[in-house]
Amino acid sequence: MQLSDSSGSTDGDVLARIRRVAVSLFRCHSEPFNADTTADDIDGWDSLSHTVFLLGLEREFGVRFDIGRVAHLTKMGDMADEIARLVS
After folding, report:
1. Could you give phi then psi for residue 28, rounded to 5 degrees?
2. Is the dihedral of CA 86, 38, 52, 59 positive or negative?
3. Does 71 reside within a domain?
4. Where are the alpha helices (DSSP H) in the chain?
5. Tens digit of each residue's pLDDT (9 = 90 or more) over 76-87
6. What pLDDT, in 10s, does the model give residues 19-36?
7. pLDDT class for 9, splitting at 50, 70, 90?
8. For 13, 17, 44, 78, which has the most beta carbons within 10 A of its beta carbon?
9. Cα separation of 50 and 6, whole Å?
10. Could you give the 3-state DSSP secondary structure of residue 74?
11. Domain of residue 41, CATH code
């Protein structure tokens, strides 16, 4: 699935855009990020940075996560699925 970014481009898929936000926040290379990546895989990904990460994703995609569902967004693939659901 492809979604337009804030510049109107559709060159990247949802997971690639999530990866961009994560790389910026966690200040690391994009190699460790894939659909199965969790907080356990990334240094510095704790409960506070998870919240900041979700806020960054909301800005990136122009969505609002339902507070009742965010506890289930533990893997990057889960986040991509939820974003796709929200924008459809």
Report:
1. -140, 175
2. negative
3. yes
4. 14-26, 47-61, 76-87
5. 999 999 999 999
6. 999 999 988 876 778 889
7. very low
8. 17
9. 22
10. coil
11. 1.10.1200.10
